[in-house]
Design goal:
single chain, alpha/beta, Rossmann fold, 3 domains, eight-stranded mixed β-sheet, six-stranded parallel β-sheet, globular, binds cytidine-5'-diphosphate, binds magnesium ion, DNA/RNA_helicase_DEAH_CS, nucleotide-binding
């Protein structure tokens, strides 16, 4: 039986004993040791599923779905029965579910509806070392719950050695000098890990995407058997590396493609794999698409998995012997001065670089090729910054308020966010009318906004569309905004795609354009052929239809009148402004824009229909940070009075 071969199996009885006797167990073990897939099963076998459900939370959606599928398979039950999962807009669980995997965000939502999490007997917060926003919040919430529910068991699992902070955070021992009264404990799982030989670049490279391809080919040519895992920063890069490698692999057998040897690979070792195949893995893939990365290749083919940060710890891929690490990671960053949250690419932390290298030493000694110099490594920070300290806190604070935690400044944060970020969030919530003059949640609006499983600005746009009589339209727009990337532009048909896209575009901006696409999709009976012809993303639109249904359910529950404004795009844009007034910008003489409140210079992104059109005032949803600050999903504000109409206090503050 394979389950017994995992490193965690040796600790099974000890783990169960400690869970029985301590309120909190902090489980530390290398990635792949079996924490996520085995621990919930051990608890289930020990009957922890009879008094309640065993919850296991993950920071990433993709980990939730892949792990749930794996555990259901190991237990030989259909997914959704004893083993289920829940991610936003997708709940595959039932009354029979005893082990439930979910994102940490979903667990937090459950705590909103059931403040003591009374359905659960054990809550396992997995991948705690990632320190995601909702993981951190859940730690604080669980601490509160445990004071009222002594029988609740909490397991914190971490792939790195930073366990002490978690142990101390959860230790309710009133007499710290007497450790026999500790309520929390650390368990380390002895992993089987093999040494990893780490190689740095001698001189910095200018293009890590090309360098990664080059190094993969060299490994393939000179090194012995074993799969390769490449870390890139985002989906676009992953796709480029995958297609470049696969194109080259086609020509591989007949020619010798590589000559320069920057990594001093030993030319003597003969590889037994004759060809190679690259497969992607990143957050946006469906379960079927992901499975390619996990499946073994036919004999003689070397697998190259090209991944975003997600394979660093969230998912385990067997058979990896070589790791190529670009040394960068894409993270969310929030700047309280500009009130903008954006995605930026930054150098890794040393802890993360170590974790990535470790992926190579799981089955036998491996090698890690770092696409940066030892000197740059020396400049990496030791640990990554918790997401809590680099996020927009609007959602979190709204939900804490809805849980009755009025004084959010005094909430027990493992790493408290800056007072400035909290103040910004409170101010926006007040302007959205979710909080009253005393900082209390407004009824019913504030509470509905907290319950809505979307960003508060999007939620406000939807709830306010009642007054503008355009809920039909805003629902469709919200659904499309949630799925993103409805237009496709294949490299072999760029111009055709561009021409088709132009037919949907309207001068009011991206939102009305999305609405046109959505409506045309419905009018054409959700036809896949139609999507192909018009270069729009069939799967994304199908998902938008499903999401729209879910959002509509909430709207009905909140008794919002679902009406259509029949083409009155002013009404629709006013509804958008009523949620996104804080994200408004004014045209400058040089063609750039400046946000109205914080006066940040920004530019309309080239993918927007308003690119190069220069309307006087705009409202936008998203910020993308590169060398410039780009705004995306942009609509025209015909008259700046719209802003004072819907958010008088927000814009009068300033004066
Ligand atoms: O959580 P942790 O990183 O400690 O390990 P895990 O995710 O429970 O994985 C344990 C083992 O299960 C891995 O070594 C994989 O061999 C296998 N696994 C898999 O094959 N497919 C999955 N979707 C998840 C795990
Ligand atoms: Mg895990």
């Amino acid at each position: 039986m394979l389950r017994k071969r995992l490193p965690i199996f040796a600790s099974r009885n000890q783990l169960l004993f400690l869970v029985e006797n301590f309120q909190t167990a902090v489980v530390v073990g290398a990635t792949g040791s079996g924490k996520t897939t085995q621990l919930p099963q051990y608890l289930f076998e020990e009957k922890w599923g009879t008094q309640g459900i065993i919850a296991c939370s993950q920071p990433r959606r993709i980990a939730v779905t892949s792990v749930a599928a794996r555990v259901a398979e190991e237990m030989k039950v259909p997914l959704g029965r004893e083993v289920g999962y829940a991610v936003r807009f997708d709940d595959v669980s039932s009354d029979a579910t005893k082990i439930k995997f979910m994102t940490d965000g979903i667990l937090f939502r459950e705590a909103l509806l059931d403040p003591l999490l009374s359905k659960y007997s054990v809550v396992m917060i997995d991948e705690a070392h990632e320190r995601s926003l909702y993981t951190d919040i859940m730690l604080g919430i669980l601490k509160k719950i445990m004071k009222k529910r002594a029988e609740l068991r909490v397991i914190i699992s971490s792939a790195t050695l930073d366990a002490q902070v978690f142990k101390e955070f959860f230790n309710f021992n009133p007499t710290p000098s007497d450790t026999s009264k500790d309520t929390s404990i650390i368990v380390s799982i002895e992993g089987r890990t093999f040494p990893v030989d780490i190689q740095f670049l001698k001189t910095p490279c200018s293009d890590y995407v090309n360098e990664a391809v080059e190094v993969a080919l060299q490994i393939h040519k000179h090194e012995s058997e074993g799969d390769i895992l490449i870390f890139m920063t985002g989906k676009e890069e992953v796709d480029v590396v995958v297609s470049t490698l696969n194109d080259l692999a086609k020509r591989f057998l007949s020619s010798d493609l590589f000559s320069n040897n920057t990594h001093n690979l030993e030319p003597s070792t003969k590889t037994s794999a004759r060809s190679l195949r690259a497969v992607p893995i990143y957050g946006g893939l469906t379960i079927e698409e992901q499975s390619q990365a996990f499946d073994a290749m036919p004999d003689g083919i070397r697998k190259v998995v090209v991944s975003t940060n997600i394979a660093e710890a969230s998912v385990t891929i067997d058979g990896i012997v070589y790791v190529i690490d670009c040394g960068l990671v894409k993270i969310k960053a929030y700047n309280p001065t500009t009130a903008m949250e954006s995605l930026i690419v930054v150098p890794l932390s040393k802890a993360a670089a170590l974790q990535r290298a470790g992926r190579a030493g799981r089955t036998r000694p491996g090698k890690c090729f770092r696409l940066y110099t030892e000197k740059s490594y020396g400049e990496f920070r030791d640990n990554s910054i918790p997401e809590m300290q680099r996020s927009n806190l609007v959602s979190v604070i709204l939900q804490l308020k809805a849980m009755g935690i009025d004084n959010v400044l005094r909430f027990d944060f493992l790493s408290p966010p800056s007072a400035e970020s909290m103040a910004k969030a409170l101010e926006l919530l007040y302007s959205l009318k979710a909080l009253d003059d005393y900082g209390r949640l407004t009824m019913p609006f504030g509470l509905q906004l907290a319950e809505f499983p979307v960003d508060p600005s999007l939620g406000a746009m939807l709830l306010n569309s009642h007054g503008f009589k355009c809920a039909e339209e805003t629902l469709s727009i919200a659904a499309v905004l949630t799925v993103q990337n409805v237009f496709i532009s294949p490299s072999n048909a760029r111009l055709d795609a561009e021409e088709e896209r132009r037919k949907f575009c309207v001068e009011e901006g991206d939102h009305i354009t999305y609405l046109n696409v959505y409506n045309a999709f419905i009018k054409n009976k959700q036809s896949q052929q139609w999507c192909q012809r018009r270069f729009v993303n069939y799967k994304a639109l199908l998902r938008a239809v499903a999401i729209r249904k879910q959002l509509e359910k909430y709207m009905k529950k909140f008794e919002v009148d679902i009406r259509s404004c029949r083409g009155d795009t002013v009404a629709v844009r006013k509804a958008i402004v009523s949620g996104y007034f804080a994200q408004a910008a004014k045209l400058q003489p040089d063609g750039s824009y400046v946000t109205l409140r914080e006066r940040t210079v920004c530019y309309i992104h080239p993918t927007s229909v308003l690119f190069n059109r220069s309307p006087g005032y705009v409202v936008f949803n998203e910020v993308l940070q590169t060398d410039r600050t780009w705004i995306r999903d942009v609509s025209v504000i015909d008259d700046p009075k719209w802003l004072t109409e819907v958010a008088s206090h927000f814009y009068e503050f300033k004066k």
